[in-house]
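User: Run a structure prediction on this.
Assistant: Running it now.
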Amino acid sequence: MNTYPLSAARALALHVQGLDLPNSRRRPTPEEILAGVLQLGCVQVDTLQMVARSHYLVLWSRLNAYDPPVFDDLMFSDSRQLFEGWQHAACVIPLKDYRYQMPDMRKLREHPNAWWLDWLSKVEHQQMLARIRERAQSGDPMQAADFPEPKRKHGSWWDWGIAKTGLEYLRAIGELILDSRVNFVIRYRQASQVLPDWVNTEEPSVEERDRYWIEQASRALGIFLPAHACEYAYMKKERGLPHVQALQKASTLGEAQIPCADKKTRTLLVHRTYLSALEQAADGMLPASRTTFLSPFDNLFWGMGRDRLFWNFRHVLEAYKPTAQRQWGYFCLPILHRDRLVGRFDPKLERSTGHLWFKSLWLEPGIRPTETLVKGTARVLLDFLRFHRAKHLTIENSNPPEFGRKLMKAL
């Protein structure tokens, strides 16, 4: 088994995620946006939107500023190639992989869990499902507001009424599919009326589905610990690790010794597609040239502890912590500079005024605001502002203060 330097592992990990290409001002094409999703396998959707929502940010990090409606068209136009489903979490998924959602659709339809059994047992809920199914026959898009309900006391979290829950249930079992999403208004249509004819709807076995997801995760990670493939695929280890071992036995996965950032040498797995790329990285022929900002939900962080293993960087989403317990901020975006995670910032966009605020800006211990780092960060920050149609920037706090001052001067 060969030993490779940590720099090679970093370079390969960034390469397979599309995070190593030099920055440019060229707007990506729809084909490149689609290719970005295909490369990652799926992209997480989340409701937090201090800046652009996460699935938009993940593609921006890799492709520069683009028009989000172009991404939306890939999900919702008549020539759609993507859809929203459940994989790592709520995700944008290629329609070519639609069939791998079907085992869970069947499971929920035929063997609902206790919560759904209770919900489905209520007469008014069954009546709502009948109303939704009847309306779906028309082929027109529909939303929760199309099904008026009596006023009720609102909760503080997932505050779904009967109609919204019914729509989501029918989507989860495969009868409906998302037809559009504008801010928080979601419209649904009957899946059979929306899915293109080319989409494969032959249901795989659970075993086949799990094997596919683990290999997809292995390819998207490139170099990883066995548990990382399970975490990327959102699969319990006792279910996923046998598939990892099967891929090793089939020589789909090779091994490499890597001295990691914590000074411990570990045996990592490498997808065979990237064995030659690892050799190139070790020879310095696969340089990471990109400076960019990463969503807190970016695929790069889907393997637990990978941030510390490769970069000695502790990535934390603190949005769900009480304010007093936050160390860095509510919605921090890590800063990637070449092959290092060098800092983070907590942004908030005022959409009405086009003003972007950095509530805090941090560099990692030992990272100095060199001219190269400042120029690279300033360049990507201009693209970030353009992507958000923001005209003004204020940095409220910077640690060290010198970084914020130099960055504003470079802008």
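The domain at 316-410 is CATH 3.40.630.30 (Aminopeptidase).
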